[in-house]
UniProtKB/TrEMBL annotation:
One of its GO terms (molecular function) is acetylornithine deacetylase activity. It comes from Streptomyces violarus. SUPFAM superfamilies: Zn-dependent exopeptidases (SSF53187). One of its GO terms (biological process) is L-arginine biosynthetic process. Pfam families: Peptidase_M20. It comes from the Bacteria. This is Acetylornithine deacetylase/succinyl-diaminopimelate desuccinylase-like protein. InterPro entries: Peptidase_M20 (IPR002933), Peptidase_M20A (IPR050072).
Amino acid sequence: MSALFNGRHRELLLDLLRLPSVNPLEAGPDDPPSRLPEILQRYATAAAEAGFRTVRLASPPAACLDRPGVPSTVRAAARDPRFLADQPSLLLRLGPERSRAHTVMFNVHLDTVAGHTPPAFDGVRFTGRGAVDAKGPAVALLAGLRAAASHPAVGRDVTVLLQAVAGEEGGALGTYGTRPLLEAGHHGRLNVFCEPTGLRALPRATAAMTARITVAGEDAVDDHPDAGHNATVLLGFLAQHLAARLDGAVPGTRVCVAGLHTGRTHNRVHGTGTLLMNLSYRRTADGDRLKTEVTRHVAEALRHFTERFAHTREFARTALDAERITGLGWDKQGLPALDDSDPWAEELLARAGARPAAGDPGFTCDAVWAAGLDDAFTTVLGPGCLAANRAHATGEFVDLADLEEFAGVVRRLVTFFAEAVPAPSAHRPP
């Protein structure tokens, strides 16, 4: 059998890898400007060869940010009108608009994290930013869909939707890419989010919330450190206390004690600073419990800090004012988690060659916005693995063999879906 991921797909992937699409929330001073609109246009052109029609290629409406769950970092960035204008998403369709029961939807993101590097292909492996997360999966998806389109029922009896979105990286969590498309009804009976899973079909996706603990005290000269508030000592104490108390506090959740920053100079006491914590959960209710635990343990830590340092020479003022100068806020919170189940869809995925999820807890991605869809099943599925393929790190790669295998799974999944779903005419009244 001839390869599905052929030379044209290889060239397309290298082309997309050459064009930077770093999410603005990730971009640093050394990152080139994002060319995401151009990438999406090239992707749409390639999809048109398989019969897909562009339904929408446009920036998200500003109103999508006036919703619960939008991270504060996204709201702040969107004060610049160019932010949303430069972050369009693409909706493609094969076949006419049909009922959800006769529609399968695929979602893939084409924005990346920072660190754009020149791409390469050595005949076996693609390297470059986005190779596995998720430009490689995006092109392999097209290869599989192009092959599936040759089945007479695909497009005739069932419709395929394809979302190619911005706003997955940078902590945006799909709030201005995937979420508006799903809320507009662009989804199906089966929804597949293309992320690196090692070709395991994960019917779940964790959600995440970000706690921001700030200290707003007064600086002091190093010759009189007792005169100021030592944010470094206070936040360091809080970081260790919370790490110990929150580890395993809510089963099924993960706690990432992330960045701590107060200052870079050695000859002063830094009175202000920030501690960030990222907290993920598999069930929405567990997220609520974890937020309660964070709030409780921050208050507990401040009391312990005061008790521990109230009688010291250098930190007595910090201890006395600890509760007053410390605040807990949330950069993002209230996001849903996906935990789906459907024997019919899971059997279809297995027949197509997707591997079982087993005990894999999943990870955070845009699929959370498909949680709770009526009469629908959602899975996360794609080639490669986030850790093993160095996603978000130097040397990110994906192997040609994995892209070919994923294209085959997509082809079989779409054709099996078309054969399993009754033709629309069977539902029409006599």
